[in-house]
Amino acid sequence: YEYFALKAAEARIVYGMGREDYACLKQLFYEFIEKSFAFYGEFFKKNAFEGEMELLPISCRLAVHLKKALDSEKEGNLKQTLEYIKACAGVFPSFDPAIKAYAVLYGEEKKREKEKKEEAAKEVKKDMQKIALQIKAKIPFLIEENRVAEAADIIKQLRSYLSDDIDLDRLEKEVQMRLS
Question: Cα–Cα distance between 125 and 25 in angstroms, integer?
Fold first, then answer.
């Protein structure tokens, strides 16, 4: 049964399933790895899956390399993942189109993730600027209540969010005059 399951997993990848869908192709690779280890694990000791792996069939060698790539990806190590993916190419030529497709899809996924993080950072910055403006509006009241040192501290903190704010410059000058 394991042999049939392994060959079915191989066929899904070789015949082009999931080549346009990052998550689908990744799942197919995981299934292939699982089926390879289940089948070949019956015939080889654990140490055969490490090092040179010369005794392993090429499809099993590829499964070992793919596992390293996917494990590295899970750890978030971009450079290492790309090196492992590159090492997969040519090991089992029938898989090369799928490996190349995965490399492209992986790159696109990382680009999307980066853009999403940048967009989230922009939203946070906008929110922080709104809060900074609300806090800035309280500074004149602090000055009126003669809490000038507190106002000066707040102005220093607001500088990173409102660096070009002319009104903040005016308030800072007023605070400095009161502190003198």
Answer: 36
Where do we find the tokens 């003669």? 146
Nearest to 33 by CA among 83, 103, 88, 79: 88
Tell me if 128 sits within 8 A of 119, measured CB to CB: no
Please, are residues 168 and 155 in contact by the beta-carbon 8 Å criterion? yes
The predicted-structure confidence for 97-156, as pLDDT tens digits, reads as follows: 888 988 888 888 889 989 999 999 999 888 888 888 888 889 888 888 888 888 888 888
Give the number of C-alpha atoms closer than 13 A to the C-alpha of residue 104, restricted to the C-beta side. 10
HSE-CB of 145 using CA atoms within 13 angstroms: 9
pTM over 0.70: no
Cα–Cα distance, 103 to 86 (Å, whole number) = 8
CA distance 164 to 63: 56
The two structure tokens encoding residue 155: 């102005």
Query: Are 38 and 6 spatial neighbours (Cβ–Cβ below 8 Å)?
Result: yes
Record the tokens describing residue 109, joined without a space: 């996924």
In sequence order, which ranges of the chain are alpha helices (DSSP H)? 2-14, 22-40, 58-75, 78-88, 96-136, 139-144, 148-158, 166-179
Whether residue 51 has pLDDT greater than 80: no
